[in-house]
Each structure stands twice: as C-alpha cells, then as structure tokens.
C-alpha cells in the first residue's frame, strides 16, 4: 500500500470511528442503540489508537459474557424477545403519531416528542436487538465449548490487566528509586 493510500485509509477509519463514537454517545441520551454505536466507534478507533484498544477489550469480554448468559435459559430469551418487541411497539406508536390523549398530564408538545425519527430509531434498535439475540442463540445455545471460550477470553483478559498493573508498579518503583 502506498503512503498516500495508507494515509487515506487511516483518515477514513478515524472519521468513521469518531463519527460512530459521537453518534453512540448522543444515542445514550436519545433513543437509539447508543452502547452498540459507542462500542462500534471504539472498535474502529482501536485499529488506530492503543487507548481505544484498551477500552474495547473489557467491553468485548463483557459483551460476549452477556451474549452467552442471555441465551442460557428459555425464560431469559423470552424476556429479551419481549423487551425488543415492546421497544418496536413503542417505535410503531411514534410512527403512527396518534393525537395527544386527554389524560396526558404534560403540554401536548411533549407527547411523542421527536416525531418519526424517534420511531425509526426505536424500531431499528429493536431489530438490532433481535438480530443480536438470534446470533447469540446460534453461537452459544447448547454449545458448552463456545461458552468455555468466553470464560477463557475472560481469564486471558484478567491476566493482561494484572500484567499491566504489575508493569506500572515496577515502573513506579524504578521512578521512586531513581528520584524521577
């Protein structure tokens, strides 16, 4: 890859990563898949920045653990499906935009605020959640080897974190010893 092509690729990855990260942080406060977008932004940025790699590692481990645990039992799966369908139902309500009901205690502007954009993000979030649940069920349901791989991933992560802590302690002791 030429230098210009490498620089263009790096710039494109950084723009994509920062855009996803910003959208994810905004979606944490607005309707939408905030955590997923935040993680996606950090994952893209982790190809360029060591700090992003360190931030992504524990999130990745926890996400795989949550995916494996989320499909351990049928009631958990059913509750997850029900939650995603409720989010989709609220999204459909936003898209339908019925008039403000007489029992609504706030100003009419606060009834289904945000309009159709909120409805679309709720429906998209629901579809993403159902897709991730399906993937988790396919990957982990009834597959103890896959669940064991997640446990191994967690163990390796703990070892890396402990090694980094020990390296920082050693470095601090050297600085203290040499009066830095």
UniProtKB/TrEMBL annotation:
Transmembrane segments: 12-30, 36-56, 77-97, 117-137
Protein's recorded name: Uncharacterized protein
Keywords, in A-Z order: Membrane, Transmembrane, Transmembrane helix
InterPro entries noted in UniProt: Uncharacterised_PGPGW_TM
